[in-house]
């Protein structure tokens, strides 16, 4: 069984390059930055997430004796290199945007400054951590914006691409404004409130639907949410109305009913009428079933009387945009700015900073991407997080991040909060200082490489 933060959870070429650096004695300071080259279609912004887990990985970076023994038997590595790895730890610096910060193409959200072998080794796992949580948090934020004031719950763990993906998706969606997750481990690990109802199988396992409702209510009297569409949705609602007074005599209240199939808006209207006629005005309606931000927006436009939603597969897999065009690239080594110039994949060189500018109403107007140390006006978004391998101060807790995200989303320009591609896109301007540095690097590359 693998350990989630095993140093071997990486690409082989990280280790073979590491052996190459060791052989050549290349241990000068390197600067790598993580950024997204282009926003996916339909996305007007992304939400930075995963910094806490990235820091935890760096703090615990080391090779265990078992890992080194496996590497020795793999035949890929030399014995003196493996001996050198025994003492390898992360001793570098980290600068990053705060979790929950909206960001845009080409803007680095994390910078690692460390001896080259360390900074190189952590590439694959850092991308793995930051990519997933940023992807899901960005999708979740769109759901929150599409259905404001509705209770949204992550239901996607069973369809996530692996155990850790489901767990991190619960954290990322909660960070973005969801009320909780059906993933129980997320409550233990991160304090994300767990939330759940019942499955159709529970109803099917009972001979009579009413018996299933009563049994579930007595088993979970503090959270009675009954799934009513196993056989006939409206008939199920009528059965809830008939059962509710008997439960009430026992001190049990039907908190909500859940719809999971069919035309949700139409069913919700009929169910709402049945519940209200039966005196269950306080019983809410919760819906699930192949939902995403676009379907939420349609249900909102139809004024469907639904109070909350479970968002599953399309959230945890970010179905419409299942990956980000992200990269972790070398921007400086041995005191010299570096730059990748591959066609379609070039990068801006050097250590960079993002300055956000706001209009008179406090709404973001544009960003300036520049070199670190350049001092244009605006709010600097990239701040020091770690120095010498140590965390400078405790990272904010998840509740603090949630409040910050809510403020950030509310402050976004209205076109960016929509689900369609904004035109024009949010402006990220390249500062003259950064353009000048890129020209200098290009000349140096040309001179040295012909």
Q: Which sequence of strands runs across the widest sheet?
A: 13-12-1-5-3-17-18
Strand content: 15-25%
Number of domains: 2
Sketch the major β-sheet.
7 strands, antiparallel
Description:
Helices cover 41% and strands 19% of the residues. It has two domains: 12-136 and 323-449, nicotinate phosphoribosyltransferase; 139-316, TIM Barrel (Alpha-Beta Barrel), CATH 3.20.20.70. β6, α7 (163-175) and β7 form a beta-alpha-beta unit. It is built from 17 helices and 19 strands. The strands form four sheets. Strands 13-12-1-5-3-17-18 form a seven-stranded antiparallel sheet. Strands 7-6-11-10-9-8 form a six-stranded parallel sheet. With 450 residues, the protein is α/β, with parallel strands linked by helices.
Q: What layout of secondary structure does this protein have?
A:
Layout: H1 12-24, E1 29-36, E2 46-47, H2 51-59, H3 65-74, H4 79-85, E3 93-97, E4 102-103, E5 110-115, H5 116-121, H6 123-146, E6 151-154, H7 163-175, E7 180-181, H8 184-190, H9 200-205, H10 209-219, E8 224-227, H11 233-249, E9 254-259, H12 264-277, E10 284-288, H13 293-301, E11 308-311, H14 313-316, E12 326-333, E13 336-337, E14 352-358, E15 364-371, E16 379-380, E17 382-387, E18 390-391, H15 398-411, H16 414-417, E19 427-430, H17 432-449
Parallel strand pairs: 6-7, 6-11, 8-9, 9-10, 10-11, 15-19
Antiparallel strand pairs: 1-5, 1-12, 2-4, 3-5, 3-17, 12-13, 14-15, 14-16, 17-18
């Amino acid at each position: 069984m693998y350990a989630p933060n095993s140093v071997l959870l990486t690409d082989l070429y990280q280790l073979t390059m590491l052996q190459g650096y060791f052989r050549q004695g290349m241990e000068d300071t390197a600067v790598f930055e993580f950024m997204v080259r282009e926003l996916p279609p339909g996305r007007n912004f992304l939400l930075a997430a995963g910094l806490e887990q990235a820091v935890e990985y760096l703090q615990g970076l080391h090779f265990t004796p078992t890992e080194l023994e496996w590497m020795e038997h793999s035949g890929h590595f030399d014995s003196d290199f493996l001996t050198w790895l025994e003492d390898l730890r992360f001793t570098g610096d980290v600068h990053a945007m705060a979790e929950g910060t909206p960001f845009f193409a080409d803007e680095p959200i994390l910078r690692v400054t460390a001896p080259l072998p360390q900074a190189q080794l952590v590439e694959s796992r850092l991308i793995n951590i930051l990519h997933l949580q940023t992807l899901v948090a960005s999708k979740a934020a769109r759901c929150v914006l599409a259905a404001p004031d509705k209770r949204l719950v992550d239901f996607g763990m069973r369809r996530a691409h692996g155990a850790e993906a489901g767990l991190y998706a619960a954290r990322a969606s909660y960070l973005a404004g969801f009320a909780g997750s059906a993933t129980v481990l997320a409550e233990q690990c991160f304090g994300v409130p767990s939330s759940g109802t019942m499955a159709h199988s529970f109803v099917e396992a009972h001979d009579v639907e009413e018996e299933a409702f009563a049994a579930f209510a007595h088993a979970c009297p503090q959270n009675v949410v009954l799934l009513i569409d196993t056989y006939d949705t409206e008939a199920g609602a009528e059965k809830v109305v008939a059962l509710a007074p008997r439960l009430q005599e026992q001190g049990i209240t039907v908190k909500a009913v859940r719809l999971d199939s069919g035309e949700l808006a139409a069913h919700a209207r009929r169910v709402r009428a049945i519940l209200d006629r039966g005196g269950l005005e306080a019983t809410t309606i919760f819906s699930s079933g192949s939902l995403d931000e676009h379907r939420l927006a349609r249900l909102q436009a139809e004024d469907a009387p639904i109070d909350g939603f479970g968002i599953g597969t399309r959230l945890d897999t970010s179905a419409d945009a299942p990956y980000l065009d992200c990269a972790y690239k070398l921007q400086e080594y041995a005191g010299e700015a570096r730059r990748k110039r591959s066609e379609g994949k070039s990068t801006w060189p050097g250590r960079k900073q993002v300055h956000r500018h706001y209009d008179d109403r406090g709404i973001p107007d544009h960003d300036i991407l520049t070199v670190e140390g350049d001092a244009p006006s605006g709010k600097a978004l990239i701040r020091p997080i770690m120095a010498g391998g140590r965390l400078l101060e405790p990272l904010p807790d998840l509740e603090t991040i949630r409040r910050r995200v809510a403020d950030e989303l509310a402050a976004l320009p209205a076109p960016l909060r929509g689900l369609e591609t904004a035109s024009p896109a949010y402006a990220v301007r390249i500062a003259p200082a950064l353009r000048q540095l890129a020209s200098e690097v290009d000349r140096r590359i040309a001179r040295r490489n012909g």
